[in-house]
Amino acid sequence: MPAKYSHVKKRPSPKKQTKRDPHAPHAHQHEHQHHNHEHTHAHGSPHTDRCISQTAAAMAKLERTISRILLIRFEQDIVRLFSTHLYYVALQHLPTFVVRCITVGGPSWVAANTECDEIKDFLRGALAMDMRQAGDRVATKSVLWTYTALRHFAKSQGISICERGGLHSVQLLPHHDALQAHLSSLEAHHPPPFSKPPHLGPMTEGIREIIQACKTKYGKGTDWQQKVREGYDRLCELLYRVAGEFDVRGYGLLLREKLTSKWCECGCSTDHLSEVCERTVRLEEEESGVRSGKEREWDGRGSGVSGWGTEDEEDLWHVDFEVPGETKADLDDEMSVGELMELRYMQAEREKEQGNAAFKKGDYIAAIERYKAAYHIEPELPHYQLNLAAAYLKLNNFIEAEKACDLALGQHRSVKGYWRRAQARKGQGRIDDAVGDLHGVLCLQHTNKEAFDEMCALAPNPLLKATASSSSSSSSAAAASSSSSSTQPSASASASSKPWHEHLAPRVKPLPFARSPTDDRKLKISSIPVTVEIPVEFLAVPTTGPDKGKGAPGAGEASGRMISQTFSYPCWERYMVQRVSEQ
């Protein structure tokens, strides 16, 4: 349910120094002031200057290696923990989705229509909202885990760890080759795919819940149970496949910036990280003891996709966000992170709607400004960049349109992203690149007639053009029926477009039972709009930057004026399933 914001009080100015966040953008500022890269040296011998230069160069390479290790392991931690999150989505939310679909479409509808665009788009919307949280949920833990791994490596090499300052990067200089080897091993299999964690059991609880919910309607027979089970199994497989459209390298932007453009190569960034993390590591060892087998080289949580392989350490999605340096008492008068993210989304959608209104009026410059504002608020939701691309295309600004599509596709490989980038590249005369993007559209939606026709018009291959002319009508028919059934395309579509559609269509195993007439029903899955009443002052609450969530009006400071905000929030709970004819 929507968060209620009336309880939030204005937080007084902090009176005590809080602990520093290891990946906060300003945590490094104080230390970096002492390393402003204006190192001056007395007039020494050329040999001394050369040694200093060589040491500085070696330190720079070492720091780049360490920051890269932190970044890659962060991305792998996102994959590992999000894969676990998907497992719980399959157990907790997909059973309800299956029940709602078969209530309208019959027991075999899900199995027969798993590949339809309607189901895929529903999954994409909910997963996009989950992925925008991934960086915030994983970043702090991942940095701590990778530091633990670096610490274990250092101890295995006989390096002493300072009790207060932790591991100093200069101590790792003699072992840079080993660090580089570890980095190479990480990069060799990166990024890993989303997949069901091997240590987690089968989805029996999910199918049990579905059968229990449907027994009243369908009785105790086994025929419908087989159809329902087949649909649920296919839907679980599709969940991980659709998640594979998202690229973890486009998320976690705050920590990513810290580890790339803001990482200091003189060594102070690693030293600061060590100082912050060492206290936590030692505290955990005091409370839980050093676990057996955890002192091996490169051991520790966050060790790639396999991790520790235990359920309680991998399921971080259902625990509260950790805000480093703040206690629960500190947060009582502030917005919770869940409320903050919901408010942030509302603010971004408000900007987007203003941009849409300007777009419809033909004021594309104003629309661009509003879309940019929305993206600034929510930089990990790719559709704002797609809106930007559409506005730039209207202005024939093909270069900026391509850049916007690049950012969006860097997070999620979508039909709109590939299509609009194809138009931008075609406008620049880069026909081969445009054809490649159109191929990307067809890989995601092989019945997209518009992309198929455009590709045939641009491609110089005469055989392709001949195929297009013979399959135009059948492609249109296939596109019209794709949302109701794509597991068994029509015979005419298969025959006429066989050279293209056969290798672009997803490989789906045939149904183990005969199709039912109800399987041809076209269903619509829609998010349920939510209307909330919030104080007008909350529209000015910062949702990004160091002051995010602060400045909410207190009980005596609010004007009392409320404003209604209605928005659709794609999620696993608020949606409806209807037959198209019922709308």
TrEMBL record:
Residues 474-497 have a biased composition (Low complexity). Residues 1-18, 31-44 have a biased composition (Basic residues). The keyword Aminoacyl-tRNA synthetase does not apply. Residues 19-30 have a biased composition (Basic and acidic residues). This is Uncharacterized protein. Pfam families: TPR_19. One of its GO terms (cellular component) is protein folding chaperone complex. Keywords: TPR repeat. PROSITE patterns: TPR. TPR repeats lie at residues 348-381. SMART domains: TPR. Residues 1-51, 474-519 are annotated as: Disordered. It comes from Polyporus arcularius HHB13444. Gene3D superfamilies: Tetratricopeptide repeat domain. The keyword Transit peptide does not apply. The lineage of its organism: Eukaryota, Fungi, Dikarya, Basidiomycota, Agaricomycotina.
